[in-house]
Amino acid sequence: MFWAFLFAFCSTIGFCILFHVPKKHIVSASFIGACGWLTYTYFIETGSGNITACFVGSCAVALFSELFSRAFKDAATIFIIPGILPLVPGANMYYTMLAILEGNSQETAAIGTETMLMAGAIAVALLAVASVIKLISQVGRNLLTWLR
Amino acid sequence: MINQIQKKVLILALRAGELMMKSGAEAYRVEDTITRICKACKIPYVEAFATPTGIFLSLDQGSEDSDMHTFIKRIKGTGIDLEKISQINHFSREFASTDLSIDAGLNRLKEIAAMKPYALLVRILGAALVSSFFALIFNGDYKDFFCSFFIGACSYVLSILLDKIDTNLFIRGFCCCALATFLALTCLSLGMGTDQNAIIIGSIMIFLPGVALTNAIRDTLAGDMLSGATKGIEAVIIAISLAAGVGVTIKLWTLLGGVF
Questions:
Q1: CA B200 to CA B190: how far, in whole Å?
Q2: Are A43 and A121 in contact (CB under 8 A)?
Q3: Domain boundaries in chain B?
Q4: What is the reported pTM?
Q5: Number of domains in chain A
Q6: Quick one: which of A36, B62, B165, B198 could link to B135 by a disulfide (CB 3.0–4.6 Å)?
């Protein structure tokens, strides 16, 4: 577990450099990436499928990013973009290609569908967390004005 | 006749929007920024429409005899520069809350536009970090670590070179992944690496369309269907180009009798 965290942390630092994340946010953005990956591996090891694990991992990334963006008063994109990248199904894409090369159409369909569903899971997770947080902050604001 | 102040506001707002869009911001953030800047300059009627390929902006002073002005800014070329997005975000808030003059604002934007990404060597190191640690994540050993460190750096340099000569999205993804796969297979046949999958997955990780995917979702969520669809298509095309690059290289390698 520790190694997975460390590896994901280091590779997210790499993404932060490539996308020019402001220097003061590099550590926090890498932390988010590592947390997302850790959640993903935890769910894989406890026997969930790739898609579920990807969904929960992306939820963790999105949640942390929203929290950090409020704490540091900066755009959430700065944390989400490097954080989500380890979860993007590059490996599955590669295995799909291998299956195509082997001419194994059954496997191609299976892995290819899984790849697309994983990308979809990331999408749905980001969407869900962002909407829920927006909803909560709106309700909170309304409640405050109502109380006054 | 367009009055001079209005023209300057237009230039300022469009410049800010263009910079943000080129740095990979979401459409709603660009529209927000433009509207905030114009409102700060006391222009009551502002309508902004941003897409990844162009920004449309209409202004009206609101009085009976004033004209309405519309400007279009075509945006070419996109990259990702989160520092610029962060800076312009801060700038627009600052501009709206303090009474910074328009000229001072334009100067500030010029400074932001001139900001350089991290030094080339650092970026190459970053790319190498990404690929090498991903090789480890996908069960590579220390040999694969060094192989993909080298391959990641090489393919990133190629992508920078291809950027310089303005190739399109597809060609760039294809060439970089083809090179990465070729180097990976060479390393393997020379006995420098052990796990083919780990090395190749690590090396193509740099080029994955994660940003396009994330932004596509965030745009769609915000109701900007056009931007969402555009970025979504970008993500799909990049993914296809990467897969094609890897696939074609492996196929050629086996056809030409390489050690596969």
A1: 15
A2: no
A3: 4-113, 120-255
A4: 0.85
A5: 1
A6: B198
